[in-house]
Structures are given as structure tokens and as C-alpha cells.
Amino acid sequence: MTISFEGRVLLLTTPNTSYSAYLGADDDIPIHTYWGPRITPADAAYLATSTAARLADEWPSFRSAANGHEEYPLDGRLQFGRAALSLEFAGVRSTEWSFAECLVHDDRHVELRFDLRQRDVSVGLHYRLYDDSDVIDRWVTVRNDSPSDVVEVHRLDSAAWVLPEQAQYRMSHLTGRWAAETRLSRTELSEGRFVLESRRGITSHHANPWFAIDDGTATEEHGEVYSAALHWSGSWRLLAQRELDEPVQVLFGWGYEDLGPRPLEPGEQLESPVSSGLFSTGGFGTASRAWHAFALDHVLPRSGETRPVLFNSWEATGFDVDEASQVELANQAADLGCELFVLDDGWFGQRVNDRTGLGDWTVNPNRFPNGLQPLISKVHALGMGFGLWVEPEMVNPDSDLYRAHPDWVYHFEGREPALMRHQLVLNLARLDVAHWVLGELDALLSAHDIQFVKWDMNRPFTDTGWPAEPSRQGRIWFDHVTSVYAIIDALREKHPGVAFEACSGGGGRVDLGMMARTDQFWASDNTDALDRRYIQHGFSQVYPARTMSCWVTDLPTFINKRQVPLTYRFRVAMAGVLGVGGDLTEWTAEELELARELIDQYKQIRPVVQHGLQYRLGEPGRSASAVQYVTRDRRESVVLVYQEAQQYDSTPRPIRLQGLDPAASYRFDDGTTLSGAALMAHGLTPTLTGDYASQLIRLVSP
Known about the structure:
- With 702 residues, this protein is of the alpha+beta class.
- It has three domains: 2-299, Distorted Sandwich (Beta-galactosidase, Chain A, domain 5), CATH 2.70.98.60; 310-613, Aldolase class I (TIM Barrel, Alpha-Beta Barrel), CATH 3.20.20; 625-700, Immunoglobulin-like, CATH 2.60.40.1180.
- The chain contains 13 helices and 36 strands.
- Helix 4 packs parallel to helix 5 (373-381), helix 7 (431-447) runs parallel beside helix 8 (476-494) and helix 10 runs parallel beside helix 11.
- It starts with a strand and ends with a strand.
- The active site is at 456 (nucleophile), 525 (proton donor).
- Residues 30-259 form the Glycosyl hydrolase family 36 N-terminal domain.
């Protein structure tokens, strides 16, 4: 890993890749010149001057001066594409800058600083490298050094990722909706613009802030892939733009298009979220494993911990909770082998349904006359940790909190705010509201011996007004998210023994920004095992199994009426962090015994699943496919094989494994031994019959 800046050529070198940009003369537009396998400083210098000369010789009429090669495009002058940076000064929305200096903050972090002409404003383009990863972090800072003038920030993207010039571009991305999150899609990028965004104030169920681009020929195992993700849990925009004969340029950053300017006060500095980029060879599978390693090694806190098997009360009791019913469920959950008991919604205020009580974070005395501690003590006595559901960013109009502070929600003066799920969004851009939320949760955790918090967020932003501070209204979309981050960070510091799960009506807040301060994600409210196969397949493109919470629940699910065998449901949920969410009091003795056996199986394979390398062996569908996990030393492997539907009397084709040591021998549970070479070249033949069939295969190299 090295950082070089000579002759105004920036060269970043990771263990296997290089990234380069050229600043040129003072009046030149900084251009991107290379991203791919490692090159030398001499190579970078040649590419810089030759690319700049070629762009200067191109016919200039009606074209941008850099023609889509801008390292970070500005709003103004001879740049006609969409801008990564758009600032307004006293009604003038045009930006010009000149290079000031290269600041090497340490051996991993470099900043290119530019000064805006005729303005007391500076812009920093930041880059950060890692010794053990090819991921490159990028972000941008804007500082207003004017003694009196406010700068309106209309756009501040974290990065502009420029792809190599090639004949074809195909973008892989994750889209969906509630109960159908992270569905993998692939789109050919033609001339024009392709936009993915969230306008909801959260990451959203409808699109996820990650992309991967190849030349249309990459497969799971072969091909060059360029990918990037955004560390942000609010509204965001990804914009890919391409002109004829020019490369694709992807702008990536917080805030949706035209959300309104964010004022930058005199003396204030605004820092964008981080966008991380990755070039890899070896297809989509290699790219995913690189993202997983980066997330586990550099993003996820306490990633070396093994997550417990949890039981959650929601699908069993809904809002109808009390101490007796929860103790009964806890006894059965412990008997199954669950290690964490989570009390979901309905324990606080007057929360008897979803119309009342939200925001009143005191224990309901009618349901828990002696508070929560007796239940917590009984759960601990059963050998389980105790967890609690909260939704701190929300409030019901029918609550003590709203009656006392109706001005604490987002709203416009003289207009009734729109309800969703009978609730409103608290204005966490207000410091007093954020401090109140932190105080309530801190008091709750201080008063109870709690090991786990499920942080939910069940509606998007609307009516984003701040009548008391109209000049600060443009800060809402950014400051709400940073307040959520600050609250969780403070709680983790004060209560280091508490783990957090990020939830937003399922997978509405799955991103690297939230991952950095939580321990796992609730990937979807949809627990139907077949639907989950597709959701989990997309999730795995960038996020590791260690962060994916997966439950086994009752049939039929509230999503659909599909009947799926219990074993198949468990083995789908075994692909991540296993949990149970059904009404155990209604399970038969046979179901409880089978669940007990399957939970024990999961505990045996859990270290490999949660901490191993993941390989996708086929895609969900009619034919058999599998998800494989391999320890980093390649001594152990776990294969979860699924067959959604059998056609005719056909048996599944052999499934070729990956990631094994070809020279090693691997023993199956039945004593059969095969070489890694045979398992990868020929594969193993699953023994699957019928619909919704599954198989768990364990391999160990003695």
C-alpha cells in the first residue's frame, strides 16, 4: 500500500490494484486516468499526460472539457454533465477552483485541497487505503472560511467513480420494496443517465447504496468487476452518466436530487459520508468476498464475536404481551437451545396497538406490574440473554410525548402532518430532541440488565418542515442521520455489553454506515423461506452472513400462504444469524424436537457460516443451488443445498464446490473422503427429492 503524488499525478496503490488521477495545470480540470491492476509511477505519469493530451485534442464543440473523465465534476464552466459538487454564493450557482496542496495526513490518508476562486471556501478530496484490502475510501470536505457569508450546498457527493473506457457497461444493483428487499438486478448502461436513489430519509427497501459494473461478460467466478458502496443511512443518490464514446462516470453521495440546499455557515465545515470503491478480478464472487472481508475487518464492530441464536416474541404475541406469556415463551425458547430472548413491541406506555404509546419509553405497569426485571431475571436464569425492541425516532399522536411536545415532529406550519402506521417522525436534527432520545434510552439500559436492542424505524420522512428554525430546514436530511449515529455511538460507549440490531420495517436501513455501529441487520420482515432465498442472495453481494439476521417463523407467513417444510425453513435461516420467531406454544412435540435438532446443527456449523468465506453456487430457482462457507485456513467447509422444485424424476446435477485446498482430503459426516480437487472439479451430488428439499453438508480436512 503506497500513496504517491509527483508532477501532480496522484497514484494510490493497494495490495493488488492501482488508482490514479491527474491535476494538470492550474486551469485544467482534474481528470481520472486509471483504476485497475497495479501499475508503476512511470505508468501513471504516462497515462496522465497522454490522457490529458488526447482529451485536449478532441473536437471541443458542445462537449465538456474533460468529457466524463473528471475526477470530481463541478457545477459550472465547461462541465455539462451532472455535478458532484454544486454550491451557491449569493444567488450565483457556479463553482471554479484551483489546486492548493496535497496533504498526506498519514500513510493511509491523503487529501487534495482546492481553493475556490474569489471565495473563502476550500474543498478537500480525501482518499484512504488499507494494508489488507483493495478497497479505497473516498469522501469530500467543504469548509466555509468566510467571516459572514453563508454558502448553500446543493450537492456534495462523496465520489465520482470513473470506469475504464470500454464497449459495454453492465451495472448490477439491489432493488425491491418492503418484504422484497435486496433483489439483484442487472442493467445495461447506454448513453444518458441511470439513477438510483432514496427520497425517504432512510436507506430504503427500494434500492440499496451499492453497485457493481462489468463489461457484460463477468460471471460469478470470472471477469473484472468495479464496485462501490456508500456508508450512509439516509437519503442518497447514485447517478451513472455516459456520453457516446466516453466512459461511465458514477456520482455517489448523500441526499436525493433537488432536496434543497444545506446551508454552510461561516466557519463551518461539512464532511460527506464515505464511499468505498473496489476493483477486483475473479468475477462477482471474488468481489463479494472482498466486500465481506472489508466489512468484517474495518466496518463491523466486534466482528469476531459469534452471534447467538435468538428468539423474538413479535410473531407469537404481537402487542398482547405480559410477564406470564413471555415467561412461557422463554421457557420453550431455552428448551430449543435459543441463547437470546428478545421482547418486541408492546411493553411500554399505553402500547396496546400501533395507534398509541409510541414515544413513551416507560414500562407499562398494567402488563408488567413489577417492571421488566422479574422477566429479565427469569430469562437470565434460563441461560439466555435479554433483548428489547425500541423505535426511538417515532411517536404516536396518541402519546404523552406528543401531547407534551407536538412541535418535536417534522411538520409544516398550519398543515396537519401525514400519518404512516399511525405515527410521525421526531425531528432529530433538533439537538434537544436528540438529547432527549439519548437520555431515555440511556436510562432504560442503565435500569435493566439488557444485552440486546432491536432499533426499528417503521416509516419514511414526510412533511420535513421545521417551523421554529426555517433557516435550518435544509439541515434535516443530513443532521437527522448523524444524530442517529451519535445516539447509537454514545449508547455503545456507555453500555459496551449491549449489542444492536438495525431494523427499518425489515431491510430499510441496510448499509455500511449503520453497520459501523450495530451488530447485525434485520434483512426483511418477509420470513417466507423461498422469498428469503432471493433476498439473501442479493444481500450477500456486499454484506456478510455474520450481519444477516434470519428467522424461522410460523406457517402460513403473513406475507403469503405458502407451505414450506420446517427443515427447509431452518436451513434457509442457517445461512446467516439464526433466529426463531414463531408461537412455540402452538408447535407440535415433533416440530419442537426437530427444531431442537436443527438449532444444535446450526451451533456446530455457526463459526464457519458467520466467519468463513462465502461462495454462491448457483442462483435460487428451480434447479438445485447452494451456498458454501469455507474457513480461512480452508480446513472446514459447510454447504447448504436447496432445491425449490423438482421436475420429472430428475436428480440434481453435481454442484462444484469452491475455495477448498485441492491437495487436501475432506471427510464427510458419513466417513466418505474426497480430495479438494475432486470436489471442485467434479463436485458433489446432492441427495434431494421433491419440492423445498434441502441438505446440510459438512466437510473437514483432518
